Q: What sequence folds into this?
């Protein structure tokens, strides 16, 4: 089922926010209560990895093709920039928190993906991994909204031209 109004999709998007919070809490729980600990030390700033880190950070914000649709569906458009600043700030805080926890838990051996460092036999790790698998479901409708709108508009225009054309 496709939802046309983005205000209804906001509830689905909230599921993605909850899922991200669950993942963060599971990683925190793994480090604090399941014996992994936050004890690794090492080089805090590795300048050779800075371009890669900035690339990952920038990539995380480039897939927001739904922002124009979100803006057009808002009742109070003056709140748009406030929503952007808050959501991007919270996302940045989440990225930094996960990065710091990963570094403190695994040091130089931290993997590029969260799931690669999680142990397979801990319940918090299993919850985090299954939640990561669910997240794309919450994002799919938001990301595909502009594509579907464009296809529908073009098909409807084409269909009306064919139907209204005299024989």
A:
């Amino acid at each position: 089922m496709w939802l046309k109004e983005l205000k209804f999709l906001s509830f689905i998007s909230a599921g993605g926010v909850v899922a991200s919070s669950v993942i963060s809490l599971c990683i925190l729980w793994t480090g604090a209560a399941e014996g992994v600990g936050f004890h690794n030390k090492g080089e805090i700033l590795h300048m050779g990895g800075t371009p890669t880190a900035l690339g990952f950070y920038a990539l995380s914000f480039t897939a927001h093709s739904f922002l124009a649709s979100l803006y057009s569906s808002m009742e109070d458009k003056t709140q748009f920039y406030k929503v952007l600043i808050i959501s991007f700030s919270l996302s940045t805080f989440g990225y930094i928190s996960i990065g710091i926890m990963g570094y403190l838990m695994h040091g130089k051996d931290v993997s590029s993906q969260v799931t690669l460092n999680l142990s397979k036999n801990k319940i918090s790790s299993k919850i985090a991994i299954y939640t990561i698998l669910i997240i794309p479901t919450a994002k799919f409708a938001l990301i595909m909204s502009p594509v579907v709108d464009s296809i529908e508009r073009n098909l409807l225009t084409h269909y009306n031209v064919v139907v209204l054309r005299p024989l």
